[in-house]
């Protein structure tokens, strides 16, 4: 869902797709929620696995259609009661089959759009720069930090320039991770941003400084928080993406655990630090088993891991779980909501409910400030 939100065809609750029954120039809005069984099934799946899962769904749907028609095209007499019942059963299945086909077509469109979006150089550059900023930490003299500076300079001065909100997000990230920007560097960025995007953005820059998001110094000690809360996945850590044990393994390209979730885990005394340490050894044992196991057993193992059954979750203990209501004032991201659903599946001590003023992402948050 986080990937879907980055497309220009999406909102928090719906996406626009090409209409199947009218010319391709028209579009229709499709609501994304739990009522769509396919969306509910894949919304939290690692994007690298979504394509394979959709292929399996397509095969199952094709087999279901063949079986339905095969049953109706038997050699029984045309006027027999049995034939009538088979036709009646086929007609009762038809709406459900059409609904599945339409949902599958919509999701295949979304996957194709996300794949095209991921090949854009601007997006890839932003993702790589984000990772460089997070991994380089507060250092401003390292080769990685200099690469970040060159990318930001090129993004602002090139023609056409990078999207304003993408540039500002990277600058805010630099400010937070490094404990602030140097005075001359911040003055240069302000000047160039105004030259490129116009003086109209001055209120946004002023607000960001008041909020301590883009300033000379701030009190946010990211290196300490990163170490204490295990916000970033280690460079040698790995885990089977089909069966993650910790929230940062759900985001393979960044390996970042949302800080709000980590703070909640820490306050509730949840044992998330041991999971990260055990991930590598569990990955080795699972890989060894998969080499010798057959395909059906591997698929079953993957399904159990995705549904939370292999993690020790017992529905009989559901009544004993403590309810935890989490409030987000200002907005919650889709990644954070995904992490909460993951925690609800993977442990049986707490059941999390989220109340938020809105669902947002970085660009939407900046627009609200602007």
From TrEMBL:
Domain of life of the native organism: Eukaryota
Pfam families: Sec1
SUPFAM superfamilies given in the database record: Sec1/munc18-like (SM) proteins (SSF56815)
GO biological process, one term: vesicle-mediated transport
InterPro entries referenced in this protein's UniProt entry, alphabetically: Sec-1-like_dom3a, Sec1-like, Sec1-like_dom2, Sec1-like_sf, VPS33_dom3b
PANTHER family on file: VESICLE PROTEIN SORTING-ASSOCIATED
Similarity section: Belongs to the STXBP/unc-18/SEC1 family.
Name the UniProt record assigns to this protein: Uncharacterized protein
The organism of origin for this protein: Peronospora destructor
Organism ancestry: Eukaryota, Sar, Stramenopiles, Oomycota, Peronosporomycetes
